[in-house]
């Protein structure tokens, strides 16, 4: 992980250096998400796309790889109807 020092300007503004913006895929006008960790006293910056990709990778760990959730639900409903 690289570390770059930036200065806080008037109004509490900081500039994300171009090198990091390029790595993150952040363009002018884009919104970034800031999150503060009390645990490690650290500010984190991410894009919505990065957060979504992280969430998807977490879900993939628990998702069934071959079956669609919709197909599973339909099959369960059909079985329940047949059992009635």
Strand-helix topology:
Blueprint: H1 18-24, E1 33-37, E2 42-46, H2 48-62, H3 69-83
Report on the structure:
It is a single chain. The longest helix is centred in the middle third of the chain and has 15 residues, at 48-62. Strand 1 (33-37) and strand 2 (42-46) form a beta hairpin. The protein has one domain: Ribbon (Pemi-like Protein 1, Chain: D). The chain has 84 residues and is α+β, with helices and mostly antiparallel strands. The protein starts with 17 loop residues before the first helix and ends with a helix. The chain is built from three helices and two strands.
Q: Return the CATH topology.
A: Pemi-like Protein 1, Chain: D
Oligomer: single chain
Tell me the CATH architecture: Ribbon
Low-confidence stretches: none
Number of helices: 3
Shape: elongated
**Number of DSSP E strands:** 2
What descriptive keywords fit this protein?
Pemi-like Protein 1, Chain: D, alpha+beta, two-stranded antiparallel sheet, elongated, 3 helices, 84 residues
Summarize the structure.
This protein is 44% helix and 12% strand. The protein has 3 helices and 2 strands.
């Amino acid at each position: 992980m690289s570390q770059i020092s930036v200065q806080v300007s008037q109004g509490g503004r900081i500039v994300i250096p171009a090198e990091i913006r390029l790595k993150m895929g952040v363009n002018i006008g884009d919104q970034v998400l800031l999150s503060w960790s009390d645990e490690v006293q650290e500010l984190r910056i991410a894009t919505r796309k990065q957060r979504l990709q992280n969430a998807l990778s977490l879900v993939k760990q628990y998702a069934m790889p071959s079956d669609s959730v919709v197909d599973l639900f339909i099959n369960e409903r059909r079985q329940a109807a047949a059992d009635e």
